[in-house]
Design a protein that fits this description.
The chain is an alpha/beta fold. The chain is built from 13 helices and seven strands. The chain starts with a helix and ends with a helix.
Amino acid sequence: MASKQEQELISALKRLIFIYGDKGGVGKSAVARLLLDIYRSESVPCQAIDSDTSNADLYRCYKRVGDQAQEIALGEPDAVERVDFTVRGEADYLIDSLGDYSELILVDLPARSRDAFTTFIRELDLLNVATESGYRVTIIHVLGKTRSSVSALKDVVELCGDGADYVVVKNLLFGEPHTFTRYDASQTRKKVIEQLGGVELNLQEMFWTSWDVIEDNDLPFCWAADAQKTILQRSQRTRAYRWLADMTSEVKKASTYLGIGE
């Protein structure tokens, strides 16, 4: 585990954050949306990138959400960029222009991007290049219950080691935290949590009456929970508000690795 002084140094660095997961449907984009929602609501400067070409949920829901969660004026560029990380060379400019970005860069990787992501890390010497530019890499792995999900985490941990920080998210849509037994019993978990100082978070399920309206209308969570902006019924809004408040507190357990206040 890092000392207090080392933790303070890590916390002061700019962050290059990747939302990663092996298969589709594990809740990866929901985590990306939640994190960007917090950044926008709390006026944390963040360059957001959606790399999912088939289900660009981050782009659809947050492209017009700006500082303090206000809607961006007509004529202003979208607040979420689209880049296909699965195409070799597409994201090279991100490395070339790291110094031009704000303190936080959030990248929502597409499903089944395991090979493309590890190739990107190796070919572009991502960890060293990020360090040279004053960035620290954070990898958020949204966990499923399959063996391949744990294997995908193992791959990136073996590749990056202590050159990155790790946040592992258990999606409680799939069961209670203690039911992720394959991950809990793995040597990968032991390395991430005990040796590398990783943080585990639980993604709660939002009740379906609220979630379906949010999904059907591509709503940012902060607008859905706002009584002045929402199209949700009162009960739906209340559930969305409570979920967002609870999940904001949960996410801030990893604040050091995510560039947000406690």
